[in-house]
């Protein structure tokens, strides 16, 4: 399928999920993440979900990471430049929703992309080769290309993979893993 059709399909599928289903599936995803070989890493980048888009609730992942004393990094998006600035999440971090309802840090201690070891990547769909479909603005592809080559990229999805995404571009960054409520896919 093409990315545009996949965006339409998976937005519709997510819209059918109840709040309870989102919570249960998000918790199951967090439990699957425990199986990944990532726990020797230090800097973990986590997206804060856009509730209106029914994204995976990453609160459970945040609890896991803080329980394991990991450094948690969250981002602020600049829609003019399509760049993301990354900040350390601390007890003092103030979170505010931007005009697109994305929860973001107001300010804080900046962390360069090259320092991040693991990135949890939001997505609408993914395929069996590790390609992903996001909202189409290119924020994550740009960000992931700024990370070091060994940074582990982990997609989070409520749904299983598509066979293949047909319109892949050379700048599209492939995932190392994608975690669903039922299993971990490795690429």
From TrEMBL:
Enzyme Commission code: 6.3.3.2
GO biological process terms on file: folic acid-containing compound biosynthetic process; tetrahydrofolate interconversion
Kinase keyword on record: no
Protein name as annotated: 5-formyltetrahydrofolate cyclo-ligase
Record-linked Pfam families: 5-FTHF_cyc-lig
Catalytic activity: (6S)-5-formyl-5,6,7,8-tetrahydrofolate + ATP = (6R)-5,10-methenyltetrahydrofolate + ADP + phosphate
Xref: PANTHER family: ATPASE INHIBITOR/5-FORMYLTETRAHYDROFOLATE CYCLO-LIGASE (PTHR23407), CHROMOSOME UNDETERMINED SCAFFOLD_24, WHOLE GENOME SHOTGUN SEQUENCE (PTHR23407:SF11)
Coiled-coil blocks: 3-30
Annotated residues for binding of substrate: 50, 55
Record GO terms (molecular function): 5-formyltetrahydrofolate cyclo-ligase activity; ATP binding; metal ion binding
Keyword presence, ATP-binding: yes
Top-level EC class as recorded in UniProt: ligase
Entries under NCBIfam families matching the protein: MTHFS_bact
């Amino acid at each position: 399928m093409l990315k545009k059709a996949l965006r339409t399909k998976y937005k519709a599928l997510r819209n059918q999920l109840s709040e309870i289903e989102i919570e249960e599936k998000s918790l199951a995803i967090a439990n699957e993440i425990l199986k990944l070989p990532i726990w020797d890493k230090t800097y973990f980048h986590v997206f804060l979900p856009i509730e209106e888009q029914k994204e995976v609730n990453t609160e459970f992942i945040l609890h896991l990471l803080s329980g394991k004393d990991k450094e948690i990094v969250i981002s602020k998006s600049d829609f003019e430049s399509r760049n993301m600035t990354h900040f350390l999440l601390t007890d003092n971090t103030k979170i505010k929703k931007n005009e697109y309802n994305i929860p973001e840090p107001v300010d804080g201690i900046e962390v360069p992309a090259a320092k991040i070891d693991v990135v949890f990547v939001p997505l609408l769909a993914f395929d069996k080769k590790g390609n992903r479909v996001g909202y189409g603005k290119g924020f994550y592809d740009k960000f992931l290309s700024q990370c070091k080559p060994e940074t582990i990229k982990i997609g989070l999805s409520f749904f299983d993979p598509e066979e293949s995404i047909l319109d892949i571009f050379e700048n599209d960054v492939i995932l190392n893993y994608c975690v669903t409520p039922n299993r971990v896919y490795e690429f």
